[in-house]
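Hello everyone,

My group is preparing for a crystallization screen and wants a predicted model to guide construct design. The compound we'll soak is fe (ii) ion. Before spending weeks at the bench, it would help to have a computed complex in hand. I've included the protein sequence and the ligand's SMILES below. Output in structure-token form would be ideal because that's what our pipeline reads.
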Amino acid sequence: MPRIDWNEKFSLSIREIDDQHKRWIGIMNELHDALMNGEGPDTFEKTLESLSEYTHYHFAHEEAFMKKINYEAFHDHRRLHDAFKNEIFSLQNEFLSGNVILHSQVMSRLQNWLRDHILIEDRKFADFYHHSD
Ligand SMILES: [Fe+2]
Ligand SMILES: [Fe+2]
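Reply:
Good plan to model first. Here are the tokens for the complex, ready for your pipeline.
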């Protein structure tokens, strides 16, 4: 299972959001590497916590941006964010309760979600933004 490499196709041409996506992908790759290198539970716990924190930070920023530009599908987009936050939250809980469930299937689901979300869903509000002026 490969890492996610940031490349131009991820770019939404919105500087601060692109920068956040790079950082977000970076943390996802840290989690990926921890899994691949067989790191212990402390590393997972810390990295999952970073992923959770950064996800909340990024979503809040993005939601404020979508509101500012009066994005028509804001509510649908926020629902997708909420679902992902819940997924990470339950992952953390399961991990903390000792059910070590972070295997490659979970990892690739997280990676796919993140990749598709940027390429498909975030792209929609970016297109809306670039065509609204
Ligand atoms: Fe995003
Ligand atoms: Fe988003």
